[in-house]
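Support request, please re-run this one:
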Amino acid sequence: MNHHVFKDLVPSYMEHLTSEETTMQMEVHMEQCKDCRDYVHEMQEEWMSENVHEQAKEDRKVDYFKKVRSKNRKKILTIVTSLLSLFLILTISYYLLYIKMWIADPNDVQTTIQTQGNSVTLTFTSKQDNRYLLLRKEQLNQDYTDNMIVYEMREDLYTPENLKDGINISYTFLDENTLLLDNGKVKKLTANEKLSIQYKDRTKEISLIDLYHRND
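Re-run finished. Output below.
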């Protein structure tokens, strides 16, 4: 094998693209020819250097894209976290300002009792600005106990006017010992029948018979 043919085949030889017969001929030639053997070694070193350089470039590109992706992920995570935090703050703020309902402090509630004929009306109004009250009534069958829980809420644009003015509870008495129920039935009263009004830290109780005589 002459030198020119050998050198032309070296790139294919280095990439293992030559046939077995050609490879054997080239290896035999390298054993016999120091110049061609040195040429192959030089080509191998150059090829390895180029590959290392290319690999380093690829590694740098990969590292760069990894850094870019990492920065983008951090930015996206920061934006999402900020939006979620803002949404949570706004939701909690709205809940605390406009939705949250809590049991009222008795010191913040003005209670008045008015009598008109046989009807006695209790009116509950808030002493605080921009607040209104709600009342949950739980009528207990035994001994006819009316259990009232007074709640307080912040006023907003959707608060009905009648709630801003106060909440009313009315009782109609046929006489001092007889109560006319909402269903039209009558209830004979004893000292056990009472109105229980629950506030944040205390409960006030009023006997229904005493309520009848309250404004005598």
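The chain has a mean pLDDT of 80. Residues 102-213 form one domain.
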